[in-house]
Structure prediction request, 196 residues.
Amino acid sequence: MTKVLVFGTFDRLNAGHISFLERAQRFGAEFIVLVVEDEFVIKYKGKLPVWSLKMRMGALRRLPFKPKVYAEDIRESWKSLKTIQPDVIVLSAEQAGWRHRLDVVLKEYNLPTRVEVLSEKQLETNATEEQIRSRAREIFLQHDSQPGHDMDNWLQAENELMPLAFRKVAELSPPKVKQGKTTKWLLVSLVHAALS
Prediction:
């Protein structure tokens, strides 16, 4: 069974992440995702992730293709590579700069792992706001112009017009957190991530 490994932050899981993961998981039967810890994100991106490590891992575990998800402490010199011994590591175009470092580590651990770098692939967002507005109006008219369903009509129009990867994000269950301002803030973040 071919083991495929990817790594990343996966903060505010979005359609770009899902597209990358869908493409990467095609390289083998066993799909493993390493989610880097907050300290790494601060060091390399200069800021804390919006979602906690637990939330990021939980969102990935709820994806339809059910990857195995683990936390990765890169400060430990990629020791998980020795444990997992992947057949293939897939990098996004954005991660291509990690290729050399991975080659060095794989050689150090004497692993015959192949490293694949995916080309940059833009998601086709073929629905403009005007197209969604137009479709929402059609839905409104189909329902005998009944007032009070503006949001339902808009969401139905968006769902019909947006690409598959965005729909998958929209279908995710939101991370479980305590009620209050945090919940509202996370909901806004989830919607923002799905649309960005």
